[in-house]
Amino acid sequence: MADIPGNKPDFHAAMKTNDAKAFYADFLQSVRTAYEAEKVKDGEFGAMMQVHLVNDGPVTLELEKEFAAPEKKEVPL
Q1: Residue (of 52, 55, 30, 54) closest to 42 by Cα position
Q2: How far apart are CA 68 and CA 42, in angstroms?
Q3: Full-prediction pTM beyond 0.85?
Q4: What is the sign of the dihedral through the CA atoms of 15, 18, 23 and 28?
Q5: How far apart (Å, rounded) are the C-alpha atoms in residues 20 and 25?
Q6: Which residue has better confidence, 39 or 69?
Q7: pLDDT tens digits, residue range 20-66?
Q8: Radius of gyration of the chain measured on its C-alpha atoms
């Protein structure tokens, strides 16, 4: 679980590595049992990745926190 008090996630409360690996392996086995096993792919748990990205075109993404919807008021008829 990640606690995000500011802009950086904090994983101090996360599972220990060996427990997390076992949990992940159990999860994968459950998915393989429930679905078509050959369609369930896996990578190396906790591996570092290098991602190469090419941006094509102007794109602006504005991310905001989701706020609760305002209360609905009854309108007299």
Answers
A1: 30
A2: 37
A3: no
A4: positive
A5: 9
A6: 39
A7: 989 989 999 999 999 999 988 887 767 887 878 787 778 777 777 77
A8: 21
